[in-house]
Structure formats: structure tokens, C-alpha cells
Amino acid sequence: MQFSNKACSFASKHYNILKSETMKKLSFLLAMLISFSVLYGQRNNRTTAFNYLRNGELDKAKEFIDRTVEHAQTKEDARSWFYRGNIYLSIHMSENPNYKKLSDNALDVAFESYRRAKSLDERNQYYTDIITNLFVISEQFYNLGVVNYNEGEFLKAISAFENSFQASELLGSIDTMAVFNIAITAEIANEFAVAKQYYLKLVDMKFDNPDLYTGLGRLHMAQGDTVAALNYILQGREIYPEDFNLLINEINIYLLSNQVEKAVEQLELAVLKDDTNPTIFFAVGVAYDQLRTQHPESEEDYFKRTESAYLKAIELNPGYFDAYYNLGALYVNSAAVLIEEANKIPFPYPNRDEEKRYNALIEKSNEYLNRAMPKLEKALEIQSDDFNTMVSLKEIYTRLNKMEKLQEIDKQIKEYQQRN
Predict the structure, then answer these.
(1) HEC-encoded secondary structure of 84-144
(2) Per-residue pLDDT averaged across 107-133, rounded?
(3) For the domain that residue 53 is a member of, what is the CATH number?
(4) Does residue 323 sit within a domain?
(5) 182-191 own/partner pairs: CB under 8 Å, 24+ apart
């Protein structure tokens, strides 16, 4: 009995061990079945999403694919992201407003999905389709950038053009026009750091367009760095010596940095290239007017050159406000010099000669004012709310004793002040 008891006890213990091992195996098998069931379920969701996409039911396709890419079992699978890209690109491209409103940024989601799919697709199962769809996405972003730009949404335009460029990079190509559009749009939006980054990228790419050098020049001028601005303009002129815009930008920098002699030298070259451009003749007038004030010993010569340039600008563009105003100002300033000189003569006059000199100076100044009057009146006709022109005309009417005109200009000035 004792032996039997031990034998029974051993057998019972052995049975318990076998039972425990069996339970472990069953538990492991059950876990595997559960895991397989979950994985199968997620893959089934992905297949369901694909079928809904194939049937054009984008709302349901989106619902099922979103579950798939969020789940740990399928979110690292290239196929999940590839399907997601297809579904969201279809939402973006859809003309059905109900599908269109399924996502505010469907194109961005599609792009990110294809990018993820491409990185996970180690065996290049979906490579051809991904590349084809990335080409579509690049074009869609580019077109979106154009729309945003035309609507004045410059920051959105920059983002769209950047995505277009990045999509083209994934294709293995470089879309230089997208880069150029980023630079231009960023400059307009005063995003100078971004603009400079992409302009310089274009320089490195050896982009064949002189506008990138004018852009770099404008950028540095806006930041007050005339030296860097001029350097970029001169670099551009070495490459594109016949480009007119680069020449004009060089002239503007010389004028703004008070290098008038250099400006005049380039302006004379500009006139030879285009003698039908009123803006060039206006710039010539501005340059000669500056030289006139800097070199009083040659005042008469520079006066004639200034006057001639402004008159030519007006001839080429009869509605050129700035040319009319500057020409009127030229005459008014010349009159002011004579009036100042006349006022230095003491009164009562020390002798008859000084009285004659005074009268001659006033007469000459009045001639200038009479020449200024119609030019400034024309300027005011072109821009009826220009306050400086009104004030100048009031001074002229007062000095020339034009009482009716003085009353009228006083009325205009009061109306302007009430509006502003």
C-alpha cells in the first residue's frame, strides 16, 4: 500500500506537470490565434478600404484606411500607406463636394502617405505607381501655389510650391520653376530669409534666368545692404550683359547710394538700348537734377539736361504724374533760389542798380513760376488728391496774384484735410 501510494502520488504529480505544459501551449496557441485574428482584421479593413475606393465610395474608403494606418499591426506596411495615398488623392481630385469636404488638406495627406509608402516599400512593389502619383501631386501642388499666389495668399503659395518641389525631388528631378516661384513669392511676402535661401539655391543650380540676380539685389536693398545688392546685380550683368532690368537695377542702386556720376553713365547706356521708355528718361532727369544741386558751377548745363529729360518722359507718357511734378518742382526750386537772392538785397535799396537787380531777380523767378504752374496743374489733374502739389500751387498762385485760382486751391486743400 505504501508503494502504491507513492506510485499514485508520482503519477498525480506527473499528470499535473503535463497539464501545466499543455495549458501553456494552449495559451500560446490562443495568443497566436488572437494576434493573427487582429492582424487579419486590420488587413481586412485595408482590403475593405481598397474595395470602397474602387467603387468610388470615398467616405467609407477613408474611414477604413484611417483605422488601418493607426493600428500597430499595419501602420508599418507600405501597402497601407500606398492605399491611403490613393484614397486621399482621390478625395483631393474629386468634384463631388461631399467627398471634397472629407478632408481640409487631402493633398498634403496624400503626399505624406506616398512618402511613407516609398520609404517602407523595400521590395519596390508599388514603386511605379507611387512615382506616377507623386508626379500628379507635384503638379497639383504647383497649380495650388499659382491659385494661392493670384489670390494674395502668399504664405500658402510658398508652402504649396515647396511641396511641389519636394515631390519632384522624390521623383528624382529638380523643378527649378517651383524653386523660383518660392523665392519670388517669399520676397513679396517679406519672408526675406526664405527668399534668399531659394534664390541662392537657384544660383547653385545655375538656373538660367537673370531675374534671380535682380531678386537678390532687391532683397538686399530692402534690408539696406546696398553693397551686397550691387555685387549681385554686377554678377548678373557679367552673365547677362544685355539684360535691361539688371541695368536699370544697377542705375537705381547708384542713385539711392548717391553715386550719381555712375548712374548717369549707365543711364546714357540705357537710353541707347531703349529710347522709348519714359521711366528711363525720368531717371535721367532725377540724376541730372541731383548733379545740378551738387555742382552749382554747372547749374545751367544740368538744368537744361534735367528739363529735357523730364519733357521727353512726358512726351512718351502724357499721363506721367512724377515727371510733371518733378519738372514743376525744378522750376519752383529755381525760382526759390532767385527769390532768396533778391531778399538779400537791403530795402530801401542802397542805389538804383540794386533796385534794378532786385526787380530782375523777381521777374526771372516769376518766369519760372509761370512755367511751373501748368506742369503742376497737370500733375494735380492726374492725381487730384496729391497734397504736395496743392501746396506748391497755392504758393505759386499767391506769388503771381492769381486770386481766383488761389480760392479754388484753398477749397481743395480744405476738402482734402477734412477727408484725411
Answers:
(1) HHHHHHHHHHCCCHHHHCCCCCHHHHHHHHHHHHHHHCCCCCCHHHHHHHHHHHHHHHHHH
(2) 94
(3) 1.25.40
(4) no
(5) 182/158, 183/212, 183/215, 184/211, 184/215, 185/145, 185/149, 185/154, 185/157, 185/158, 185/161, 186/154, 186/158, 187/215, 187/218, 187/219, 188/154, 189/154, 189/155, 189/158, 190/222, 191/155, 191/158
Buried b (16+ CB within 10 A) or exposed e, 124-141: eebeeebeebbebbbebb
Q: What's the pLDDT tens digit per position in 356-400?
A: 999 999 999 999 999 999 999 999 999 999 999 999 999 999 999
- The reply to whether 198 falls in a domain is no
pLDDT digits 0-9 by tens, 262-303? 998 998 888 888 899 998 999 899 999 989 988 889 989 999
In a domain? residue 144? no
- Distance, in Å, from the CA atom of 221 to the CA atom of 213, rounded to the nearest integer, reads 12
Global model pTM greater than 0.70: no
Instruction: Categorize the per-residue pLDDT at 3 as very low, low, confident or very high, splitting at 50, 70 and 90.
Output: very low
Closest to 221 in 3D by CA, of 193, 249, 183? 249
Q: Look up cell 471634397; give the residue.
A: 100
- Full residue range of the structural domain in which residue 93 is found: 45-125
8 pLDDT more than 50:
no
Q: Say how many domains are in the chain.
A: 1
238-260 residue pLDDT tens: 999 988 889 889 988 998 888 98
The CA-based dihedral angle spanning residues 158, 164, 169, 171, taken in that order and rounded to the nearest 10 degrees: 180
**Considering the domain boundaries, does residue 68 fall inside one?**
yes
Question: What letter would DSSP give residue 62?
Answer: H
